[in-house]
Amino acid sequence: MDFLTVTNVHHTYFSKEAATEALQNINLTINKGEFVSFIGPSGCGKTTLLSIIAGLFQPTSGTVKIENQAVYGNSDLSIGYMLQQDYLFPWKTIEENITLGLKLLKEDNQNFSKVTSDLLHDVGLPPIGEKYPRELSGGMRQRVALARTLAVDPKILLLDEPFSALDYQSKLKLEDLVANKLKEYGKTAVLVTHDLGEAIAMSDRIFLFSPRPGKLHQIFEVPEDLRQLTPFDVRSHSSYSPLFQIIWKELENLEQS
């Protein structure tokens, strides 16, 4: 069943000096509960498309719908967005950061301490609700950012290189955690990444975009035997390297053309 549909999306950035076409004729669908990745050369419009899917701005033309509801200007749709930086408010406690979205939604009937405790447990953190962001490591802060995103029960999670600022060990742990939690919560997710290995390890499908103006060049299905594994274990499976080589060569051809 099509959950997210992107139809004939074009986008152009205008300035006083020039018009820059970022995206051209993007058509794609994503199924409910599916995890997909957007990859492609730098400047191919991946983050622009993610922002359009988030409803942050309208495309120059075309439509984006979630369950047949237009995304832009729709306050009834809850969309989670995780970025490279955690953007926790340093003057607020961890509990206040996690429950901020619920308070903005005026969910006053919630037991915020219990919500915080449950979510911290879900993302593998001890009861640190009274601590402040400055007291946590980068990996712990990203776990808190994930808990904050899940707190509002979003329809879809949009992940814009959320692990790229972490050390490699923390990155691998967070990949496993996010993949596991999204399956457990039954969430649909879109990941923008420059890390091809990460895309293969976490995704059901990979969307490869061509250089600017970004066009959808090719879609790769991740084999079922990889999709059943954790991201960490995917990298040591015999099916991983051949798929990596196929996509890598296609990406190289795009960058050279």
From TrEMBL:
One family name in Pfam for this protein: ABC_tran
Record-level Gene Ontology MF annotations: ATP binding; ATP hydrolysis activity
InterPro entries: AAA+_ATPase, ABC_transporter-like_ATP-bd, ABC_transporter-like_CS, ABC_transporter_ATP-bind, P-loop_NTPase
PROSITE patterns (alphabetical): ABC_TRANSPORTER_1, ABC_TRANSPORTER_2
Entry keyword annotation includes ATP-binding: yes
Alphabetized UniProt keyword annotations: ATP-binding, Nucleotide-binding, Transport
CDD domains: ABC_NrtD_SsuB_transporters
Residue ranges of every copy of the ABC transporter domain listed in the record: 4-236
Protein name: ABC transporter ATP-binding protein
